[in-house]
Design goal:
This protein is mainly alpha-helical and about 80 residues long. About 75% of the residues lie in helices and about 10% in strands. The chain has a two-stranded antiparallel ribbon. Strand 1 and strand 2 form a beta hairpin. The model has no long low-confidence stretch (mean pLDDT about 75).
């Protein structure tokens, strides 16, 4: 009787492990896909920002003070 219950628990644990593995893979691929979408959005925002900066430089006749970036570096185009 003990052998049967041990075998049953072993098989159950194997199946549960496989199920957890598949759930983890599905969730991981979904997270990777979401991260890729977020990366595309960030890239688009950066492109729009660069385009706005470039347009402002052209409107100012080539000299434009952008202030400070995230690291507090002074940014100037001349």
């Amino acid at each position: 009787m003990y052998q049967f219950t041990d075998m049953l628990f072993a098989k159950t644990n194997i199946l549960m492990g496989q199920l957890k593995h598949e759930i983890g893979r599905a969730a991981g691929s979904r997270n990777l896909q979401a991260r890729g979408i977020a990366q595309k959005r960030r890239g688009r925002r950066h492109t729009e920002r660069v385009d706005r900066i470039h347009q402002a430089i052209l409107e100012q006749g080539g000299a434009y003070d952008l202030g400070r970036d995230r690291r507090a570096h002074l940014i100037r185009f001349q």
